Amino acid sequence: MTAFTDTSLYEVIVIGAGHAGCEAAMASARMGCHTLLLTLNMDNIALMPCNPSIGGPAKGHLVREIDALGGEMGRNTDRTFIQIRMLNNGKGPAVQAPRAQADKKMYGLSMKYSLEQQQNLDLKQALVEDITLDNTRNIIRLKTSTDWIYEGKCVVLTTGTSLSGRVIVGDKSYSAGRAGEFAAYGLSQSLIKLGFTLDRLKTGTPPRLDARTIDFSKTIIQPGSSTPIYFSFVKPEEGSIHFPTPNPAYPLSDSTPWRPQMPCYLVHTNKNTHDIIRANLDRAPLFTGIIKGTGPRYCPSIEDKIVKFATKEKHQLFLEPEGWQTSEVYVQGANTSLPEDVQLAMLRTIPALEKVEMMRAGYAIEYDYVPSSHINATLETKAIPGLFLAGQINGTTGYEEAAGQGLIAGINAALKIKGKPPLIIKRDEGYLGVMIDDLTTRDLSEPYRLFTSRAEYRLLLRQDNADLRLSPIGYRLGLIDKVRYETVENKREQIKWELERLTKSSIVVNDSSNNGSSNRISLMEYLRRPEVNYQTLSSSGIAAPGAGADILEQAEIEVKYGGYIEKQKHAVNRMQRMEERNISSSIDYNQIKGLRYEARQKLERFRPVTIGQASRIDGVTPADIAILMVYLEKQRRNNTTAEITN
Amino acid sequence: MYQDTIAAISTPIGKGGIGIVRISGSDARKIVTKVFTHTLEDHRLVYGHIIDPKTNEVIDEVLVSFMAAPHTYTREDIVEINCHGGPIPLQNILELVLHHGARLAQPGEFTLRAFLNGRLDLAQAESVMDIIQAKTQAGLRLAIQGLKGQLSSRIKILRTELIDCLAYFTVRIDFPDDEIELREVTPQLTKIKNEIIDLIASADHGIVYRQGIRTAIVGRPNVGKSSLLNRLSRENRAIVTSIPGTTRDVIEETVNLGGIPFLLNDTAGITDTEDTLELLAIERSRNALNQADLILFLIDNSEPVTATDRKIAAILRDKTVLMIANKADLPAQADLQEFPWETIVISSLTGAGLNDLENRLVAIALGGQIHSSDTLLVSNPRHKDALQKAAENLDKALQDITANMADDFITIDLTAAINALDEITGGSVQEDLLENIFSQFCIGK
């Protein structure tokens, strides 16, 4: 029996239409590549199988960066959120972050619509079972479960949790990519055949409750922002969004005139809840050994919390509607793989949930991932040119982390097709850079998630300046248009002018500390005072004429936190020469006399592209770096000599 | 490696009359100008004084040469401060330039820069690597020695407490939904800062004691360790100090051989007591040699090698060892072939072979077999510099808290303080921080 083969050849094929896959496919198609996006299930595009929320510290930063590079996540969230808030107000400009609750169904549909509008992009449903290489043609061949063949010059693999996925609830487990979906077993085998090693991770999700069975009068209402907040720098057009009537099961908080929103609801566990969990630990797969994969510490299951923090009397649970109209409510804080009866019993100990019904039970899922020493900072695999990995397959968690990698993988696949140098965002340019650099320089012990604390230059990487940081790159790649680019550049100019104005203009102040004597100081110095801000300037009639709020925001941050910002810029400069020194991909670390064994091993495994990256690999010392630099310089001079003699 | 300006003491320790602090990098001239009384001139030796601009105190009378790039050893701007050769002026001057913006050079970094900037040719590449390796190994030995010491164990405790405070602020930032109990960190941070300031003060004392090559005399009881020590100190009148150790119950004698101070660590007083158990003797020897740059392994040449000798020898693998076969006045019985080390035969009773021993010790010290002597000198300023940076950043964090600055800035200062301590003890803030957060706070969705 011979398989019927489709002869159509794509430049880029993206496997998986989750958050990574959608961004990868859109970027590649927008950059002019003939692109195919394959999904396991056409109804689950850009699915949010866990929390309905997007953003938060570091993750919200990431969404703004994705947006500045022309990605979809920010815009799509803006179209579909039921609530948005700015977190960390007052904790410093660098850690403020927007977070939205999305309507899950609308999010997926809206993304599907965008994909369908995109030129150069085909969207098909298929389960890819085998990847083979046609080395003579430099083509990657994909075989589906129905023996269809697709051929791609570049392939971006975004498998999420579907690689040999196994769902676990209590003592029951079954193979699934997500609850109710196929797992991809063939692909795991195929990757092993191609020489990849696979490892296993675990994650989990809480039960979904029926809003009609919740007594919301016993919850604390968490309303959305009263002032407009959007992820994208391009705001949705007035009237472009259709807001459905919210499900009447939910009580709403005061309306927010700028946009309809729905609140979330806070409840707490109590002693009875904990007792039920404790009494059933012998049925918890996390403790019985059924679950072997490593779960994330920052996303512990409720049973984990009860065991680890035994003295804590209550834990908070956020009840988050999964959309405008659905009755399904996500229980943030209660992710669990306890048996279904225990899940229900423990929930019913909470006053607001005494009569609650679960619509879906919580579950844990184990899945295969490819340890990230297999990929370059471009997200291309080291072993197979043209094959890129993005999202959970690289051991990360989070929609935003996945989308960010998908975008970079899609961009780099397209750049490779065009024969252009790849895009690598540096650690001082974006959280995107921090994430990928972390992935390619360290071994994971749990699913990787971004935190603001992972960014050493985070004062430079603010969510409010992502457009200034990355729009020039987005424009150069053709991912944002000229109008948008010029708007950003205009903003940059205006900030510069305003800062100049602050330096040049002065003000006479009466110093109460200095016997009331009056001093003339620059506006810059004046604004630097803790008690002074633009409102103060405005009431003194010396505010910037005609400058918008976004300009003033940037200027004020630059002025008030200039000392800190300068310090971080200085630190960046210090590293710069190291970041610019490239390491040839053909380097043989065994040839380098004087490298310690551990350093040699680590360098061989991660194969860093720059000296800067090498210096961040755990177990590589400054002395190893010095020796590596001498070796590279020696090679360079040898090569130069060879060229001259040739 | 980086583009910043580096400094180090570039003359070996010894009794030489002149010592040199060398500074290389684009800020070299600017930094020295801040602490030197006269104007620097390119390729001229200028006479003047190094002063501490804060106190106007004269540190030393010096000759300073400035050499503008590119015609210098590193092809960068270089300033060399020629001062009096004692360890104190050298250290004070080094600390002063570090305080004014230079960074302490990594082992072999001047040579590395010279090579990377094209000053050394290809043929010298191997030796550049050798220098980096040798100096680093010496530094590592020192680091290990430091890590076992009281200083580093205290720093580690402080670091853990700092991570704890940092975790508190970080968790509030990275997990804004979680209910985190408010905590007053000012008292704890103040306590940590004061302890660091105490450490800086004690480091100043420590520096005086720690000059020279730490030399441990080890061997089983009754091989003649004490008499060797007595011989070496009696024959060499130039004893600098004799300080009863304060943290260990051993005696240290500083003996000046050929101008080089050797800190002889005498374990004899302990191991030679009649009721000392063999195990205890081995254990004590082990402690002494962990801190030593050079080990004199003493063996009784008049008896066959014993099991205890072999046990001690086993501990000495990977160390710089000079073997001494004592009691040459008696008929030789020991078979020294089984040991891998160079051996000198002496008699501490008659003094035979003592001259050979002394010459050999000086040769080892000068011949590059021990690299730690100069590193030892800079290691203290390195620690002190790091401690000072930590204290400054803590001070800043405390000011931020008082001024009601946002959490973010406090975490930046605390992180900088921890990074400074990490220069001494090593470690990864990011991982330790997350570990602390997840063990201390119940967070997550």
What does this structure look like?
- Chain A has 4 domains: 9-205 and 367-476, FAD/NAD(P)-binding domain (3-Layer(bba) Sandwich); 208-220 and 246-365, Beta Barrel (Elongation Factor Tu (Ef-tu), domain 3); 482-568, tRNA uridine 5-carboxymethylaminomethyl modification enzyme MnmG/GidA (Arc Repressor Mutant, subunit A); 581-645, DNA polymerase, domain 1.
- Helix content of chain A is 35%, strand content 18%.
- Chain A is built from 20 helices and 22 strands.
- With 445 residues, chain B is of the alpha/beta class.
- Chain B folds into 3 domains: 6-120, Probable tRNA modification gtpase trme, domain 1 (Gyrase A, domain 2, 2-Layer Sandwich), CATH 3.30.1360.120; 147-206 and 374-440, Four Helix Bundle (Hemerythrin (Met), subunit A) (Up-down Bundle); 213-356, Rossmann fold (3-Layer(aba) Sandwich), CATH 3.40.50.300.
- Helices cover 48% and strands 18% of the residues of chain B.
- In chain B, the strands form 2 sheets. Chain B has a 7-stranded mixed sheet, sandwiched between helices.
- In chain B, a hairpin with a 4-residue loop joins strand 3 and strand 4.
- In chain B, helix 5 (150-174) packs across helix 14 (429-440) and helix 6 (186-209) runs antiparallel to helix 12.
- The longest helix of chain B has 31 residues, at 372-402.
- Chain B is globular.
- The two termini of chain B are 43 Å apart.
- Classes of the chains: A alpha+beta (646), B alpha/beta (445).
- At the A-B interface, helix 17 and helix 20 of A face helix 3, helix 4, helix 5, helix 13 and helix 14 of B.
